[in-house]
Predict the 3D structure of the following.
Amino acid sequence: MQIAQQALARGGGLSVARFAFDPNNPRAQLDAARILSRLMRQMDFGAAERDGSVIVVFAETDFRTAHMIARRLSAVMRHTSNGKHEMRSDPVVSVDSLSPSDTARSLLARLSADASRAAS
């Protein structure tokens, strides 16, 4: 990820949030991606992962601010109704920030490890 290298070079913040959903509710990931795409700032970006989670990268954002944003996004997802008969899916959220010794891979690996620990 070039953005991680740029953030480290400029000394700016870069944080990542992982929103994980119940694998028995495959529509939850699509609904979350739709909601996130409408609420994210133009400088942020997200990606749907094969494991059913959604990763969101917050550019120029420190951990504390990213944590607050992720909580608000999670609350919107939790309270957005997808229809009368849709199963509600509360995401499990993990947030982490880029440190000087990180690469994009190490940050994402740490985020996934945190999510695995939280799920067990």
